[in-house]
């Protein structure tokens, strides 16, 4: 079991109840432990980064937390409810690694369609979501004519259209140009400031400092948790990638 | 529900694969129903009598569109409809859109029903396209041979369309179910096409064994062929693949409708229960 406590509060007020909680979470694929006994609590209004190489279990963990997959053992809770829960699903936004949008529809039709799925009745919500990702002027463009980066932005708009309090973003900035990446993170920050809990998976270390807290993942385990500064300090390096490698080395050495 | 149905229909309308299948179907309908027949009429084989020639021409005229075209629906039309069903339900797996849909539990059945509804409307379009291109081809034949252009009886045309729609809908529903169960398009297409061949084999052996005949009478292809045969005039000779008279028309219609309902219900149930308890 890997129990990862949050970093020392440093005199902060009493922490809010966890939005997301994992307890001894295990997911087996045959003999492979894709998620290997993970436990943590994630507070509301913060951005958490799941960092690790491909195959470290980030996407599987997200699938367990969203109820898309069933844990072999352990318990996942979102908004105080054990997952998978049908009631909680409507309050979760999930941007998958694939774009997950309809290539034959326009950008606007895609957002409206997914809004309909989420039960969105506010007619302005699809337009707001498109504006957030800077695609309002492309609302009538068929997806097949959009660039790769624009499709990622549209995919994000579809995940945001119902204004969920919990947002899972699986590699959200892949294929997105640097300028837009900055805009993405600015928007994530605004959402978090508004109380949204955001879990971002990535293997891009230079984005990690934009997260409030990082969870380093390797071989299905959370091998370290803390802010970027804290993790660097604990690893004795100024470089986050080096920090990851040192924590990885420690884990390998203890196995 | 209505909005999802509309979006699904719009998706189909803008989907190149849908139009490619319709174009293929239109080509098949004209080639097998008219082009090959008309070439045979223009260059008759030795021994063909004038009366046979006249009958061949008469069958190709506009008044005979339904009788001429309906034999193509059980097998050739069925293949296209099965492919359409498999692509419609299976492509969401390739696009990654099912992931988002499955996350939205309350919307799952609505999406499934909307998708199937749009598919069945699209299949009605396929039924109409077959008769439409046949109508155009028959008018061309009539003009080329200086024959009167007489439209088919409206009742016959409506019955033909209804029969064609039911046959195609049954196959499309089977295709959608296969794609949903197998979460893809390619494998269901392969299995579906292989099944069509196997079913043809079973039906061809029906007169050799009571057991095989009983099995054949329960299969969708047999009932599709029997339903199509049931609306042809008595004595109308058809040798098109898939046509048979193993089952009465009424019974065949009920069995096909049951296939549509059962496969659709299973598709919706699978989507409703998948992954999330």
Entry keywords:
heterodimer; A: 255 residues; alpha/beta; Rossmann fold; five-stranded mixed β-sheet; 33% helix; 25% strand; B: 277 residues; mainly alpha; 12 helices
Secondary structure: number of strands of chain A = 11
Uncertain residue ranges of chain B: none
In CATH terms, the superfamily of the domain at 17-90 and 202-255 in chain A is P-loop containing nucleotide triphosphate hydrolases
Shape of chain B: globular
- In N-to-C order, the SSE pattern of chain B is HHHHHHHHHHHH
The number of distinct structural domains of chain B comes to: 1
Average pLDDT confidence of chain B is 90
**Helix count of chain A?**
8
Q: Oligomer, anyone?
A: heterodimer
Concise description?
The complex is a heterodimer of chains A (255) and B (277). Chain A is an alpha/beta fold and 255 residues long.
Give a description of the structure:
The complex is a heterodimer of chains A (255) and B (277). Chain A has a domain at 17-90 and 202-255: P-loop containing nucleotide triphosphate hydrolases (Rossmann fold, 3-Layer(aba) Sandwich), CATH 3.40.50. Chain A contains 8 helices and 11 strands. Chain A has helices spanning 58-66, 86-89, 107-117, 125-132, 148-160, 178-193, 228-235, 240-254, and strands at 2-3, 20-29, 32-42, 47-51, 73-78, 81-83, 92-95, 166-170, 197-202, 213-218, 221-226. The longest helix of chain A is centred in the last third of the chain and has 16 residues, at 178-193. With 277 residues, chain B is mostly helical. The radius of gyration of chain B is 20 Å and the shape is globular. The interface between A and B is medium-sized, with 31 and 24 residues.
Secondary structure layout:
The complex is a heterodimer of chains A (255) and B (277).
Chain A: E1 2-3, E2 20-29, E3 32-42, E4 47-51, H1 58-66, E5 73-78, E6 81-83, H2 86-89, E7 92-95, H3 107-117, H4 125-132, H5 148-160, E8 166-170, H6 178-193, E9 197-202, E10 213-218, E11 221-226, H7 228-235, H8 240-254
Parallel strand pairs in A: 1-3, 4-9, 4-10, 7-8, 8-9
Antiparallel strand pairs in A: 2-3, 2-5, 5-6, 10-11
Chain B: H1 2-13, H2 16-42, H3 50-59, H4 65-69, H5 73-95, H6 97-103, H7 108-144, H8 154-182, H9 186-204, H10 210-217, H11 220-230, H12 249-273
């Amino acid at each position: 079991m890997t129990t990862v406590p949050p970093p020392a509060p440093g005199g902060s007020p009493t922490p809010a109840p966890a939005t997301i909680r994992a307890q001894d979470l295990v997911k087996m694929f045959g003999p492979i432990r894709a998620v290997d006994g993970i436990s943590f609590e994630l507070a509301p209004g913060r951005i958490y980064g799941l960092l690790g190489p491909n195959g470290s279990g980030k996407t599987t963990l997200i699938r367990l937390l969203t109820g898309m997959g069933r844990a072999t053992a352990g318990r996942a809770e979102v908004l105080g409810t054990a997952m998978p829960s049908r009631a909680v699903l409507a309050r979760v936004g999930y941007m998958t690694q694939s774009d997950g949008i309809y290539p034959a529809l326009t950008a606007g039709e895609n957002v409206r369609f997914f809004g309909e799925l989420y039960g969105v009745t506010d007619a302005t919500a699809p337009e707001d979501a498109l504006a957030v990702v800077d695609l309002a002027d492309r609302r009538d463009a068929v997806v097949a004519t959009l660039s790769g980066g624009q499709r990622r932005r549209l995919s994000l708009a579809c995940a945001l259209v119902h204004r969920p309090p919990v947002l899972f973003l699986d590699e959200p900035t892949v294929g997105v140009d640097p300028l837009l990446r900055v805009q993405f993170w600015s928007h994530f920050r605004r959402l978090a400031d508004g109380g949204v809990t955001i879990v971002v998976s990535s293997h891009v270390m230079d984005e990690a400092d934009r997260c409030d807290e990082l969870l380093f993942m390797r071989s299905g385990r959370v091998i370290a948790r803390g802010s970027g500064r804290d993790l660097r300090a604990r690893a004795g390096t100024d470089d986050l990638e080096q920090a990851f490698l040192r924590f990885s080395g420690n884990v390998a050495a203890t196995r | 529900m209505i909005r999802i149905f509309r979006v699904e229909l719009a998706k189909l309308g803008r989907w190149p694969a849908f139009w490619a299948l319709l174009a293929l179907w239109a080509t098949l309908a004209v080639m097998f129903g008219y082009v090959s027949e008309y070439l045979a009429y223009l260059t008759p084989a030795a021994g063909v009598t004038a009366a046979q020639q006249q009958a061949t021409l008469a069958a190709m005229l506009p008044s005979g569109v339904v009788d001429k075209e309906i034999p193509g629906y059980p097998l050739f039309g069925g293949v296209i409809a099965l492919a359409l069903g498999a692509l419609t339900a299976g492509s969401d797996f390739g696009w990654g859109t099912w992931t988002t849909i499955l996350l939205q539990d309350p919307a799952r059945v609505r999406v499934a029903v909307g998708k199937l509804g749009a598919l069945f409307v699209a299949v009605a379009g396929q039924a109409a396209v077959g008769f439409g291109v046949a109508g155009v081809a028959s008018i061309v034949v009539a003009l080329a041979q200086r024959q009167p252009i007489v439209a088919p009886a409206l009742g016959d045309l409506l019955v033909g369309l209804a029969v064609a729609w039911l046959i195609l809908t049954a196959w499309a529903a089977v295709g959608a179910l296969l794609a949903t169960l197998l979460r893809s398009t390619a494998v269901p297409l392969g299995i579906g096409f292989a099944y069509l061949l196997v079913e043809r084999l079973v039906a061809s052996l029906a007169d050799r064994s009571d057991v095989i005949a009983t099995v054949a009478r329960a299969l969708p292809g047999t009932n599709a062929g029997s339903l199509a045969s049931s609306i042809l005039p008595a004595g109308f000779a058809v040798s098109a693949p898939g046509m048979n008279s193993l089952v009465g028309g009424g019974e065949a219609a009920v069995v096909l409708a049951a296939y549509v309902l059962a496969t659709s219900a299973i598709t919706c149930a699978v989507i409703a229960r998948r992954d999330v308890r």
